[in-house]
Amino acid sequence: RDNLCKQMSTYSKGYLVDEDRFDYMKLSFLGDIKAHYRTLRDYTKTYAHAKYYDEAKTWNERCDVAFPCASQNEIDHDDAINLVNSGCHILVEGSNMPCTPEAMDVLKRGPMF
Length: 113
What we know:
This is NADP-specific glutamate dehydrogenase isoform X1. This protein has helices at residues 24-35, 41-46, 77-85, 101-109, and strands spanning 5-9, 15-22, 51-53, 65-66, 90-91. By secondary structure, the protein is α+β, with helices and mostly antiparallel strands.
């Protein structure tokens, strides 16, 4: 159970948190939602314990690994502080320059890989 992912940031303007974790079946369901142009809110109709945060940034959630993949300058100074303070250990850049220069300064000083 510990090898399952707790949070998932997605393509929408918000994000999902599932405290019961995302397993293969739930990830497949999310793929189906995306393939049929439905919203992440539909996930919470099936899994009522999950929470969808509309128009919110995921970088305030506690995480071990962050994958900013949406756009340039997605993570700013305050987001970087939130990531470091929440215990994030690894940041994987999935887009071109996802962090502002100010965010990079924070991340370089923190225990981030």
